[in-house]
Amino acid sequence: MADTAPPRGAPITHGRVLHIALPIVISNATVPILGAVDTGVVGQLGQAAPIGAVGLGAVILTSLYWLFGFLRMGTSGLTARAHGAGQAGEVAAMLTRALMIGLAGGLAIIVLQLPLFAAAFALAPASAEVEGLARGYMGVRVWSAPALIAIYGVTGWLIAQERTRAVLALQVLMNGVNIGLDLWFVLGLDWGVVGVARATFIAEWGGLAFGIWLCRDAFARSAWRDWPRVFDRARLREMAAVNTDILLRSLMLKGVFLSFLFLGSGFGDVTLAANQVLMQFLEITAFALDGFAFAAEALVGQAMGARDPMRLRRAAWMTSLWGLVATFGLAAAFALAGGAVIDLMAKAPEVQAEGRVFLPYMVFAPVLGLAAFMLDGIFIGATRSRDMRNMMAVSLAVYVLAVVALVPALGNHGLWAALLVSFVARGVTLGLRYPALERAAAG
């Protein structure tokens, strides 16, 4: 693949930002397609239990794998910094570390699968039939955990070098193989739920093999197996600190959204359903802004490595400018077509009506959340994960206070307002820490 990193010091232009961002946006757009196909093929079996089993099993495994999301972000920031500093050997060594952590994390899940699955079903009980099918699905798919988690590291490594077309190719290949095997195994060979799991297992290991091939230039350097460098204590301590901070930040962010879901359930089934539909608007926002946040990770990280504060500022400004364009586009689309989207996702008239009541919050969400999204990418690129962790803790506290103050008086309106307040708090607190990034780049 001809997707190569531009030379160090190349100017940061609008074209360069879009070259990084657009493949990520397209890649993200392919993600829901796979879920729809998984559901659709088992739906052809004519029974409810297989659909529930695949959905439940996928949610449990995805939640476990999500804990390792720090690997993509941490690898991206550290690799971009090394790339910007011209440390080609460290860039190659970072790939080795990321692969080793990913494979080790996946093996840990395989070893601990019995207690992990038992705990998951205790938290999310299902009928005996659904649980049995879900266990069969998970029992097959869990064996590709090392591959999928290692792919997080590969993805972060590629993003750091602006090779997002390679990331798109990897995503398309994995999803394409998965979809093709879904159709063959389930509809052709009648393997049912286990067929869906086998398709995913093959796609994920195949994806890792393809990802390693995409990174083949790193393996042309002896540094990838320069074990004293790979296991350098200072580098490993820094990587552990960055990854731990990102994990804690992500857990707090997850806590905000889980509490939103639980609190929303107290307003009745119709409101809960409407909230779930509207949360898909936030997913769309995240998918769209990811491309520009990832561009910030790469360009800011390289500027930090080059010790160039002016370059850092331009990277932050240019990526955020395009993020702003995207947010206003999303806000306009939600305002004009949000009602039709709600009607498409929910057929119950009462849910449609309730969704429209709270749709204005979705119109404002992209704009109010822009700073938080973009500064996350900027701080990941700068590897200032401690600031991310600490500011997320402050934002969590602000969210809790907003919930306590607003929900009793305003109900679900107060809950949505508290969520948007948490977005603003995260953006403001990280923004206040931004000058420290430029000082660090100059130091």
Provide the descriptors you would attach to this structure in a database record.
mainly alpha
Overall structural class, as computed from helix and strand content, comes to mainly alpha
The whole-number mean of residue pLDDT values reads: 93
Low-confidence stretches: none
Q: Sketch the major β-sheet.
A: none
Alpha-carbon Rg, integer? 22 Å
The proportion of residues forming helix, as a percent range, comes to: over 70%
Q: Characterize the overall form.
A: globular
**SSE string, helices as H and strands as E:** HHHHHHHHHHHHHHHHH
CA-CA gap between termini: 37 Å
Strand content: under 5%
Total helical segments: 17
Number of domains: 2
- Count of β-strands: 0
Please summarize what this structure is.
By secondary structure, the protein is mainly α. The chain has 17 helices and no strands.
Report on this structure.
The protein is mainly α and 443 residues long. It folds into 2 domains: 10-231, no CATH class; 235-443, no CATH class. Helices cover 86% and strands 0% of the residues. It is built from 17 helices and no strands. The protein has helices at residues 14-43, 48-66, 70-84, 88-111, 113-123, 128-141, 145-160, 164-188, 192-214, 216-219, 227-230, 233-265, 269-305, 309-345, 349-381, 385-410, 412-442. Helix 2 packs across helix 6 and helix 2 runs parallel beside helix 9.
